[in-house]
Design a protein that fits this description.
Elements (H helix, E strand, L loop, with lengths): L1 E6 L4 H13 L3 E7 L19 E5 L5 H11 L3 E4 L6 H6 L1 H23 E2 L4 E2 L4 E5 L25 H20 L3 E4 L7
Parallel strand pairs: 1-2, 1-4, 2-3, 4-7, 7-8
Antiparallel strand pairs: 5-6
Helix pairs in contact: 2-4, 4-5
C-alpha cells in the first residue's frame, strides 16, 4: 500500500487530487493535512469523509512536531505539498504570512521528510520515497500577449506571493542538489472550478 501525505487537501486543487487518487487507486492511504484557512473548505472533502483510505488532520505545515509525528506514524512514500497562501492581493497586504507558510512551511516539510527518509551514515534515501512541490506559473513573471513559459524559463517573480513560491521551489531544488532528495516540482497555470 502506498501512503501519501497531502498538504492543503481542502483547497480546490488539493481536494480534486484527493478525489482523483481515491477513484484511481484502491490500495492507498491519503493522510490529508490542512490548516483550514480562507482557502481550505472541508465541504470540498465531504464525499470522502467515510472513506477509510482518507484521513483528515487539521494542522499547520509549519508545526514541526505534528509533521514529524505524521511521518513517523504513517511512513509516507510520498509527500505532496499543495498547501500555500495564494492570493496576490493578500500577499501585498501581508507578505510575512506568505513567507511563513510558503517558505518556512515548505522547509519544514522537506526537513521532516529528510529525517524520515534519509540515512545520513550511508547517505542514501529509502527506496520509493518522493517529495512533490506544487508551485505556480507565476514564479516565471508576466507573460506578454503572445508566447509561453517552459521549464527553462528563468524565474522572475513580481509579487510577495510569487516570490514566496519561487523561494520554496529553490529550497526544494536545494534539497535535491545538497542531499539528493527525490523531488518533483510542478508549476501549473490558473485552475478554475
Amino acid at each position: 500500500m502506498k501512503r501519501y501525505l497531502i498538504t492543503g487537501c481542502a483547497g480546490f486543487i488539493g481536494s480534486n487530487f484527493v478525489y482523483y487518487m481515491l477513484k484511481k487507486y484502491q490500495d492507498i492511504l491519503l493522510v490529508n493535512l490542512d490548516k483550514l484557512t480562507y482557502a481550505g473548505n472541508l465541504e470540498n472533502l465531504k464525499d470522502v469523509e467515510e472513506d477509510p483510505r482518507h484521513i483528515f488532520v487539521q494542522g499547520d505545515i509549519c508545526d514541526k512536531e505534528l509533521v514529524a509525528s505524521l511521518f513517523e506514524k504513517y511512513d509516507f512514500d510520498y509527500a505532496i505539498n499543495f498547501a500555500a497562501e495564494s492570493h496576490v492581493d493578500r500577499s501585498i497586504a501581508n507578505p510575512e504570512i506568505f513567507v511563513q507558510t510558503n517558505v518556512m512551511g515548505t522547509v519544514n516539510l522537506l526537513q521532516r521528510a529528510k529525517e524520515a527518509w534519509y540515512d545520513s551514515e550511508t547517505k542514501t534515501w529509502k527506496e520509493g520515497k518522493k517529495y512533490i512541490q506544487v508551485s505556480t506559473d507565476e514564479v516565471y513573471g508576466a507573460l506578454g500577449a503572445e508566447g509561453y513559459f517552459t521549464e527553462t524559463t528563468p524565474l522572475s517573480p513580481h509579487s510577495p506571493y510569487s516570490s514566496s513560491k519561487a523561494s520554496a521551489d529553490h529550497f526544494v531544488m536545494a534539497f535535491y542538489d545538497t542531499y539528493g532528495m527525490p523531488i518533483s516540482i510542478t508549476r501549473c497555470s490558473n485552475n478554475y472550478g
